[in-house]
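pls read this stuff:
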Amino acid sequence: MKYLAALSAFVFGTTVLAQTAPAPSAAATAIETVKLEAFNVTGTNIKRASSETVLPVTIVGADTISAIDAPTPIELIATLPQATSVPSTEAGFGGLAARGDVNTVALRGFKSGNTLILINGRRMAPGAFPSVASDEGVPGLSVNVSQLPNRGLGRIEVLRDGASAVYGTDAVAGVVNYIMARNFRGTEVALRYGLTEFGDGVQSRATITHGRGFANGKGWLLTTVDYLDRKIIYTGDRPWSATSDMTSRVPAPFNDINQNLSFFKSSAQGFYGMFTLGQLGTDGVTFVAGRPTGVPATLASAAGAVFIVPTGGGSVGFKTTTPNRTGPEKEWYFDQSRTRTFSPGSKRLSWFTQAEYKLLPSVTAFADFSFYRAASNAVQEEQNVLLTADGAYYAPATNYWNPFGVRFFDPQGRPNADGTPRLVGTPAAVRIDNRRLLDGGIRPFEVTDTAVRGVAGLRGNLANTWTWETAGVYSATRAEDFTYNMYRKSLFQQSLNRTDNQSYNPFGRTFAVQNNTIVVTGAFTNPEGVLAPMRDVFRRFGKTFLLSGDFRASGELFRLWRGNSVAGAFGGETRRETYDDTRPPFAGPNPPNSGLDPTLNDFFNFSTNPDLHVKRSVTAAYAEIAVPFVGERNRLPLVQALELTASARWEKYDSFGSTIKPKVGLNWTLLPSLKVRGSYNEGFRAPSLPLMFTQTIRRASTGNDPYRGPVTNLVSDGFNIRTTIVTGNPSLQPEESKGKSAGIVLDVPRVKGLSLTIDYWEIKQSGVIAASGSVNDDVTALAKATQAAIASGTPVGQIDLGSGTANYQGDPAMLRLPVTQQDRDLFAAYNAGKPASQQLAAVGPINHQLSTYFNQAELFSNGLDLELNYATRETALGRFAFNTSWTYLIDLHAFDKPGSPRRELRALNGTALWRGSNTLTWRRGNWEASIASFIHRKV
């Protein structure tokens, strides 16, 4: 059993509060008690007194929020049992996705974009950069919950059901609605200090919250200002993450890194380097690989391959084949964990203000404004030069440091002008296939996130039972991502082209001719005077914008027999959404007049993304109805109440058309203490703007070749960076979903204040957007074709899978090179002695991958929600309240496309089988104490 538990304020942090006047509280319960009057609850626009039991809504009240005392919004949301995972890309290393002070929330095991985040019932703009890593490589725009307020909250409502029929897109897995306190009066100052058990990650936080009435009670104002300073946490400072080589922690046979790389994640992009010798044309581009005349076979293979490898005891030598992952040569593989970060350092300022003013007895004006700004910093490992991702870069034969160049080889073997010897042979250029540029230093990155949001509107009463509300929303986010110590490709090649000792040395070593061969004489670090001219700062900028206007109204429609009131609601909304992703010249595509390839950029390790400026408009209308067939005036035995609810929402997008989604529910009160509820809903998630409109880009992606890797054991087939050509798909349609839920609400008889709820839920999502093609699909197709050919009588050595041709029998998205004789020899050695069912036909290495996005996957999730609340009466000792809430994930699986194998997702990537939270609160007079625990179990 694995579990995680944390005690707020007692283990990692301490909070000190000072308050001029205590904020009134309706009750000292963990789940806030609401007044028995008509009110709105998340999931419906119909006001009534029993919505919190009619709908599966968890209300996290102010007392619970205080008990949790989370230092950041994501740590507060992480305590929700329904948040089966809390995707975080704070310390992302790709540089093209969201990172910095960025966190998203995912309910029910679905991608983060399937959870709708609201403040006071209205939307906010998503984060400025897409969250790729947390959404299985599919770029999605999700709200950055780091901008949410953590103080001044009245409650957080979590709708544990689909709600596209009410809110539209994104509300597939549920809705999280932050509702600010409307009854806070006085001033509260909160100071918090915390650190990890390792003494790092120090957090300092200060919050001021002020609430007051004005204009003789016609108006009220709430404002809260929060500042957080959090220090960086490095992966190297944790025993479980200090190394990328985890083989020492697993038993045989999983620790055999020659057969299984699952626990050996050290990078093949190492400091020592992998090179190819050959002759470089006068154009600086044409290159013919091969071992030149005079170069010994001990230094380079016939194809020109050269590895510089550690040989033990600090010595370094040459090798012509892939370095071993055991013994001294294991050091050739780079341990990137030593310089990465778990959590960035961040300085965050957030300000939230809301106000109301009664213009007329039946009309109230309201507004809220929020501002958020965070500056984050982290580091990542030194950059690398990689042939398969960055293209070819050469140390010409005239490069001063080239051990196979003109300073070390001469056709007649004549010595240099300074008298140093040279070998007889043809000087060669060296192609840099793979090398980590350690002397360039680690790469710090800084991300600045800004969000501004404003809401202004009117609400009021109409006739006796109707209420109405209208508002406009302006919400915008901006992010700036700067990565330092980055090398420009063109400037790197210019330095390599120099012939003096101020040229760049790509080998990290010095060499000499001794005993009629080339030997390594020592380590070498390029001086700053050589490095500085090649460096630049990689910059990217992202912006999102949302402008909306809405109107809503609800009230009594008519009365049924016995006077039961049929209630209804209707409304509409219009939204404008924009997304901008921009880069300056050379960080984006090279300028046309630069002399460089305009389809590429000029920075190593970063993909070439053209600027993207896209927008769309959305128009929506919805209606709801609640029909109480049985109510207070016509009760029956075992039917104290029976209500049917229905809602539907129509939305039209100018980018893909319109959709209508319904929801129906039935609520049956058998006894005053026992209620049964159930619902069926259909939902959708609109494709994000980057998915639809991204232009064709060349992207560097990390992965391995699981088909060739076990066969060849080559660096190029292991975990490596290769090119993926990505294109958006403007024909994408919304992801569709169907959800069901059923549950009971029990107020335990004879135990006042004790209640229990149990709900079953399930969601099936179809047309899920997924990237086309994958190495796993490729392996499946190749294995199937191989076995079919063997079954037909073709020997495995004679099977042609069409590698490098239009007749390729693997996944068409994977483009491979033609098969060479070396490939055939390696596959023949692998297949020798293996039964036919385990044999693999030869294919060439992956050249690049084609990728776009289609509505092709399917996702299913179901589980149970359980909640127990107990609030004691007032006693001489005070009043106690206890809450325990749990979610159990029964099933979570996916099909990547029609006909593909079922993929189990439970207990993977941080998704828990059990998640629970417990809160105990005590209050007596002005004294209050609380304790909270949170449990995350994978088994």
